[in-house]
Amino acid sequence: MQIQGYFDLKFEAVKDAFANLFEDPQERGAALCVQVGGETVVDIWAGTADKDGAQAWTSDTLVNLFSCTKAFAAVAALQLVGEGKLDLDVPVARWWPEFAAAGKERITLRQLLSHRAGLPALRELLPAEALYDWDAMTRALAAEQPWWTPGEGHGYAAITYGWLVGELLRRVDGRSPGESIIARTARPLELDFHIGLVDAEFPRVAHVSRAKGNFGDAAAQRLLKCMMTEPASMTTRAFANPPSIMTSTNKPEWRRMEQPAANGHGGARALAGFYARLLDGRLLEAELLNEMTREHSVGEDKTLLTRTRFGLGCMLDQPEVPNATYGVGPKAFGHPGAGGSIGFADPERELAFGFVTNTLGPYVLMDPRAQKLAGAVKDCLS
């Protein structure tokens, strides 16, 4: 497999580890970008972007980043906190009065961002098309009763996070949630990252598909079993209500919508650039970054049925948990996306890391491909 792009010779072992991914015949396309101290030391890509394997992955290929998007949304919300327009500990209902229904009158932005609000899913089954109807989804969430007492324990809001945080952005920032986030993060940093793609960008987007025959680790199998056998469970509802959540990735409607939990589109360079700018203070004041990366939730996740650890809109490292470590340093923070894409930072090494793929793996948290690459980076730095 021919590897395109640039790497500092000190990081040749990282390039080799990336090339090794393609020994798996199912691996289609991927990109990796690593910055250290704000300098790009690796920016490489390989493979194919389209469904038929005819279109080469290029330096500006975009791919659906799934939950990597959540950290961008959190930064936009935290910027509004810094501007005094939002508050982490004031009830959300101050800005969104309808949200106070059904026992949610005291839920705060801090609880939404740390997955402690009890709203990872909707009980009432919605039609597939509701996924693309912002007002229908936010109305349903405003009426929903929490699945547990808000603030007591946590459960990952895989997709509802986007409507919950996005609606606050919409109401407080006065623009659509995607526009708010892009104007506050990607545009000033000149990152090729989008929430709500225009049709003219579609030719650049990689077609995403699942690898076959790999059932993942124990956490992935537990989640799959729950979704196959307990259709009314909170976990199943979180990923399958509306039922179109899991099947829409390559659809034009999905690309066009603004769903800041799951449908950001970008590349490895955008992810690494975002985390590099978090580290150098250009996105958040130090006090707000400390708040974002401080432990807010840890332990058994009511949605994912595995151990998770969250700050505000970011996943924190769990060095002792094989499926939940970035594999670099214990202070690492960032966010994986479904199927393998990931962006993270390790402040101790001034490291920013972005990996993207269009070959979806089955893992719930960290994908072993990204972990191997991160391990190779760590070895080159030590």
TrEMBL record:
User: Kind of enzyme, top EC level?
Assistant: hydrolase
Keywords in UniProt for this one? Carboxypeptidase, Hydrolase, Protease
GO MF annotation: an example:
serine-type D-Ala-D-Ala carboxypeptidase activity
Query: Is this entry keyworded Hydrolase?
Result: yes
What is the protein's given name?
D-alanyl-D-alanine carboxypeptidase
**Is the keyword rRNA processing assigned to this protein?**
no
Coiled-coil segments on the chain, per record: none
SUPFAM superfamilies referenced in this protein's UniProt entry, alphabetically: beta-lactamase/transpeptidase-like (SSF56601)
Q: What is its EC number?
A: 3.4.16.4
